[in-house]
Amino acid sequence: MHDPLTDGYPEPTLTVLRQQRSAPCPLCTIGRTALFHQDPRREYRRCDSCSLVFVPSRYFLPPEAEKACYDQHQNFPTDHRYRHFLNRLAQPLIEVLSPGARGLDFGCGPGPTLSLMLAEAGYPTVIYDPFYEPDPEVWQQQYDFVTASEVVEHLHHPFLELQHLWSVLEPGGWLGIMTKRVLSQSAFANWHYKNDPTHVAFFSDDTFSWLAVQWSAELRLVGQDVVLLQKPR
User: Mean per-residue pLDDT for 180-191?
Assistant: First the structure.
């Protein structure tokens, strides 16, 4: 069949192009994916099964370049504006937690703050970050809640990584996620959120609904960027 996008390429190059254009979904792994948006730096594909919009792996930054981006973040526990921002996740989570609930903050970054806020409210919280706090001991425990604030958009293998977080939750526990959500293809084209080179996975309401079905979880969409998922008891 005539394909203007591949006509004229030698066969080895055609093979690479076909693989690139059929990049598997890193969340559900089974859906068909199609080009959703393209800019001069990267392409973004959307899965027709779970609705994840993602950047194919060939555009991922190497770990040292990714960490260099995170090193530039200026987020500290003493910053009241940063605390106000994180409270968008902390407050609705606290409202569903039992007194003294214990948690894990995944992807705390170079200036752990959400964990301190939760501990100050009476919810002791340990931290893990693959670059800044890579403590494997945290995975040997179970938690009443797990938080991931401005994290899931960075995940290279979102199903495996989210499943790992889900696995350390106690029955009845809560996974709290904060990430900006995809609204539409036209809005995505002008969305500043996609321009961060470390952002490679973009979730929508439909994507979180898909996750909730896979996990038989209760789903709560809070505002425009907070999601709570409760593990079945």
Answer: 97
